[in-house]
Amino acid sequence: MMFFSLLSLLLLACATFVAWPLIRLAPDATAGHPELYEALEERDRALNALRELEFDHRAGKIADDDYRSLVRTLRLRAADALKTVDAHA
Amino acid sequence: MALLGEGSVALALGLYVYAALVGAWGAARGSQRLQRSARNALLAAFPATAVSAGALIAAFLRHDFSLVYVAQHSSLSLPLVYRISALWGGQEGSLLLWLLILSVVSSGAVLLNRRLLERTLPWAVPILAAIASFFAYLLVFVSSPFETQAAPFDGAGLNASLQNPYMLAHPPLLYVGYVGLTVPFAFAMAALLSRRLDARWLVATRRWTILSWTCLGVAILLGSKWAYGTIGWGGYFAWDPVENAALLPWLTATAYLHSVMVQEKKGMLRVWNMTLVILTFSLALFGTFLTRSGLVNSIHSFSRSSIGAWFVGFIAVVVLASVALLLLRLPMLRARSPQLESLASREAAFLYNNLLLVAFALTVLWGVLFPVLSETVRGVPYSVGPPFYDFFLRTFGLPLLLLTGIGPLVAWRRASLRSLRRGLAWPAAAALAAGATLVAAGAGTRPAGLAAYTFSAFVLASIAVEIVRGTRARRSLDGGSWPRALSSLVARNRRRYGGYIVHAAVAMLAIGIAGSSLYRASAERTMHPGQTIAVSGYSLKYLGTSFRPGANHDELRAVLAVSHNGSPDGLIAAGRNHYHAEAFFGNAVAIKTDWLRAEDLFVIADTFTVDGSVDVKVIVNPLVDLIWLAGVVFLFGSFVALWPDAREERRLVRHELAVRKVATA
Q1: What is the full DSSP assignment across B593-613?
Q2: Beta-carbon contacts of residue B647 (< 8 Å; ≥ 6 apart)
């Protein structure tokens, strides 16, 4: 009898918890902006890549010539990414 | 107790099915009410499952033999701690543990990511719930631990092999490893379904993957330690199918943890990462299936059962559905993947590492499946033994070890020959010096062992060089003292430096495996009291037998006096245990560890006769203790990598706030 009461109590608690969002008004959904997420990620990736490049250059992993050509490319990419973020925002 | 246990697991099944169906409907319709209700159902299933597991543990503690499962896996004389671990001593309890861990992991992943992945989560909930529904269904309708009977006076006891401290931790950790891999799988599939293919799901599930991978790795090592001390053949990994089954998802998860960094850094390998997630989760299910089905002959044959067909069906559904979804989203994934810039770059090194890891995993999988396929197709039983696996371990493992050392020294994007040469100079010199010293010491008789030692020295030296160069670079950028620069270096990229600690553990593991498997020495003979056996500088004199009766089991031992290089080194006692309730004789090997040399003296004593003679086998396992030490280092490295990165979390929150701002503008 005690186990039956415990089980009934568990069932009731679970049912209330599950039904709660159905009986109360849920807040409106935020409109999705997947392209903005992508742009923000691309911006972070580009800025991180620049930081990594600087660090690797200092650590001696990147030769000076490679550093100069890569930093130019990455700066352009970061600038493009920032423009894309601005356009979406 | 049976009513409470059975009722609550049935309630959990109802909640999971509701969460799967209503959650999928809500996600497809975009209804927040249905999504939240499904999420709550998934969360509510945790206490329901916990009550069910609690009821079974209580039945074990109370010796409630009216439950068939309790009677089959415990006895009145079973020590308390093993009455608790008997929960996972058989198939039904193991399934319940699987479901319990899945309910904890699912609830945790959903609660922690409810804001971060607001758009992917609605699909992750029904996927997690659908997977849990399968296990709950098995527990309710196919393999219930709550079946009742007229209670016998005593139970049959727990398998003696499981009455071991390592078995308290090995199975639960293994299950946390297997089950935890559900999270990256569910969120990957949710990302595909919701078409949110940015890297957020990767970032959000990264720690779950590392945690599962760590648990799986530690579980494999604990299982090896258990086999080493309990099975008593002097080894620790026999390429048993069930051991292999745990290794498979660990290997592919290792590949995934590396390739995921390439996607995060460069947006590359999106399709490959999805493939690895699917492969890893499928292999985790396959591992559970192999352990539970009794499909293949294994030291784990205590867990044979008839749920194999259910698992095969479920694995088939998972693989087919996830591959179909991946193919459906292939154009979207490919459209956003940039190309590899150079074959000499960090990302290329990760790619080579991935190919080797996956090739090794597929080779091991073939070794596991071939005997089954051979018997099914040709009707001829065929076993794949250690020589097959050892050959491929050398073929794939040694290049992987070398890559472990090279990878960290190569820059992202592009590395010139000159900078590569400069980076590799010191580690290569250290490795060559180590190799030359080892050849002079006589280790050259085993080329594979020499290669493993030399490559491991290269890995350790490359880590040291990388840390020194990194600290110097940090100091030149930020200034400050060397310790401060080192601390800042690690704090700024815990995952990278935690990973390097794990690499050091891998090098130690390689040294331990090479030393103990290629340079071991052994001797065996039938001994009478007073006789001596000698091997590799050790001499053991058999003094006689000892007998100690116990409540749960009796212990019979051969006592031997040890001397090492002529000096007395104490006593050692090896023999057999007799477990009363289980009517089972088990080996009780004796191990004497020399921590300074990381070497074990391993003694097996068997076939005791009335005239006092006993068969003794003595093995000297050089460097074997580095394997267990590697486990500790591995755990430490994983913790460093797992430690939350506040900057990363702030970055994701900033993204979320930026998107909300735009949405509400």
Answers
A1: EETTTTEEEEEEEE---TTS-
A2: none
* pTM, entire model: 0.90
Q: How many CA atoms lie within 13 Å of B590's alpha carbon, on the beta-carbon side?
A: 24
Q: How far is B650 from chain A (nearest CA, A)?
A: 12
Assess if residue A51 is contained within a domain. yes
Which residues 116-135 of B are in CB contact (within 8 Å) with A?
118-119
> Using CA atoms, how far apart are residues A46 and B258, in angstroms rounded to an integer?
20
Cβ atoms of B33 and A21 closer than 8 Å: yes
Structural contact between residues B307 and B288, judged by C-beta atoms closer than 8 angstroms: no
Contact A61, B411 (CB under 8 A): yes
Give the residue carrying structure tokens 């940039």.
B338
Q: What does the pLDDT average to over B64-77?
A: 92
Quote ipTM for the complex. 0.75
Q: How far is residue A76 from each of residues A47, A50, A83, B504, B539, measured CA to CA in Å?
A: 11, 11, 11, 38, 72
Q: Identify the three-state secondary structure at position B119.
A: coil
**Residue of chain A minimizing CA distance to B38:** A18
Helix (H, G, I), strand (E, B) or coil at B148: strand
Whether B206 and chain A come into contact, CB under 8 Å, resolves to no
Distance from CA of A26 to the nearest CA of B (A): 6
DSSP-derived pairing of the beta strands B599-606 and B614-621? antiparallel
User: Which residues have a Cβ under 8 Å from the Cβ of B457 and sit 6 or more positions away?
Assistant: B430, B431, B433, B434, B435, B507
The answer as to whether A46 is a domain residue is yes
Q: What pLDDT, in 10s, does the model give residues B78-130?
A: 889 999 999 988 889 999 999 999 999 999 999 988 776 677 889 999 999 99
Interface test with A, best of B64, B118, B146, B412 (most A CBs within 10 A): B412
Answer yes or no: are the C-beta atoms of B345 and B415 closer than 8 Å.
yes
Kindly report the nearest CA distance between residue A34 and chain B, in angstroms.
7
CB pairs under 8 A between A and B: 149
Q: Which residue of A has its CA nearest to B264?
A: A45
A37 falls within a domain: yes
Q: Which domain holds residue A46?
A: 33-89
**Under an 8 A CB cutoff, do B33 and A21 touch?**
yes
Inter-chain touch A45–B196, beta carbons under 8 Å? no
Residue A26 lies in a domain: no
